[in-house]
């Protein structure tokens, strides 16, 4: 086969971001050592520390350079919650959300699998293996709103949820494709009994696109009921498709029932491939454990598996997934550093 050269942007970010990204890169290299694929890495400094040092969140020229890469590996950004030097929301809105919107990351993909050997807070979780396809570019997160008479008794605040037929259709189609390649079950999660305008747009798009996928069984749950089933019967789910806000909330619950934040991976994906997709652990910068080699890099490493799959390197992606599962199954009670875990997973890849 012809050798493929990929150019990868790496944004380590703040706190444990650089620690877990280093292990992700280690595993990426081990997983592709025997493939006809090479990766050229370019590091970008962004995040809270960068803002403190320079006043920059995401400059336009940096965004332009990022567009030139095939994919982005992202760690985490953000300061400690009590750090008053950084205005709340500035890094989230002006950097993270700006990246997702500018690069049209309309599929926010979050797999939730309970790996053998991982304790779940649920007594009888069963076989948990589902993915949430969360819409990433619309909903209440677009900044369509405003405030009047702020600080007075007459303050008005609006935050309008934007849902377009185009935006909903494309994410629904992606969810159907994924369901078709998995256990052929799709659950729409919304609240169309109350949010009738947006809810019915979603419902109709699922009906229409569903006709192209007769092999996929379609189910619907209101978001409140979905939180119940995620705890009482999570094994019922295969692919969940939902809007930006509901997806944000239920994916944290999904991470909690499948062994926690140290294992939860995600992709911010532009399936039209008009801009690079970005892969990142779900967790934040964890200032409480930063710089101590205490972070679990597994979420970042599983994000690398999603990245490899997106680039068409399916065999390498599967090997990373297998190595992670083996490592998790063999975990004892001995404490391991962040780089111990990365080394262990990388060496499983070298053997396999
Ligand atoms: P967090 O996810 O950083 O930490 C929550 C708790 O989980 C902490 O106790 C932390 O030690 C633990 N934890 C997180 N990742 C871990 C890992 N890999 N291994 C072991 N333990 C881990 O969330 P928090 O504390 O709410 O936010 C800290 C900062 O991160 C804030 O500035 C927040 O805005 C930012 N943040 C950034 C995100 C991103 O970059 N996408 C996502 C979430 C939060
Ligand atoms: Mg969140």
Automatic annotation (TrEMBL):
Co-factor requirement: Mn(2+); Mg(2+)
Residues reported in the UniProt entry to bind NAD(+): 284-296
Enzyme class: oxidoreductase
EC number from the UniProt entry: 1.1.1.85
Residues that, per the record, bind substrate: 100, 110, 134, 224
Keyword Transcription carried by entry: no
Function statement: Catalyzes the oxidation of 3-carboxy-2-hydroxy-4-methylpentanoate (3-isopropylmalate) to 3-carboxy-4-methyl-2-oxopentanoate. The product decarboxylates to 4-methyl-2 oxopentanoate.
Record family assignment: Belongs to the isocitrate and isopropylmalate dehydrogenases family. LeuB type 2 subfamily.
Protein name: 3-isopropylmalate dehydrogenase
Organism of derivation: Crystallibacter crystallopoietes
């Amino acid at each position: 086969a012809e050798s493929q050269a990929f150019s990868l942007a790496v944004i380590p970010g703040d706190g444990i971001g650089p620690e877990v990204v280093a292990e992700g890169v280690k595993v990426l290299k081990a997983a592709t050592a025997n493939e006809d694929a090479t990766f050229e890495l370019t590091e970008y400094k962004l995040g809270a520390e960068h803002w403190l040092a320079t006043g920059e969140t995401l400059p336009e020229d940096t965004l332009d350079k990022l567009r030139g890469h095939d994919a982005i590996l992202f760690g985490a950004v953000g300061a400690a919650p009590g750090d008053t030097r950084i205005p709340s929301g500035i890094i989230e809105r002006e950097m993270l959300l700006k990246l997702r919107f500018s690069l049209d990351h309309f599929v926010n993909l979050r797999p939730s699998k309970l790996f053998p050997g991982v304790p779940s807070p649920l007594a009888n979780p069963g076989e948990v293996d589902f993915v949430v396809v969360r819409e990433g570019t619309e909903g209440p997160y677009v900044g369509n709103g405003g405030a009047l008479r702020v600080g007075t008794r007459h303050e008005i605040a609006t935050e309008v949820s934007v849902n377009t037929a185009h935006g909903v259709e494309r994410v629904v189609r992606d969810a159907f494709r994924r369901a078709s390649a998995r256990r052929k079950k799709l659950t729409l999660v919304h609240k169309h009994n109350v949010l009738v305008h947006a809810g019915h747009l979603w419902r109709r798009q699922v009906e229409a696109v569903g006709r192209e996928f007769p092999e996929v069984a379609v189910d619907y749950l209101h978001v409140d009921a979905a939180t119940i089933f995620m705890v009482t019967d999570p094994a019922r789910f295969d692919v969940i498709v939902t809007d930006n806000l509901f997806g944000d909330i239920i994916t944290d619950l999904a991470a909690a029932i499948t062994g926690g934040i140290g294992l939860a991976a995600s992709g911010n994906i532009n399936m039209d491939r008009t801009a690079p997709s970005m892969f990142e652990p779900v967790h934040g910068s964890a200032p409480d454990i930063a710089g101590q080699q205490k972070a679990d890099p597994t979420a970042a490493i599983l994000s690398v598996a999603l990245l490899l799959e997106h680039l068409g390197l399916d065999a390498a992606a599967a090997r990373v997934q297998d190595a992670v599962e083996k490592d998790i199954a063999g975990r004892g009670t001995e404490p391991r550093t962040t780089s111990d875990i990365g080394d262990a997973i990388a060496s499983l890849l070298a053997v396999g």
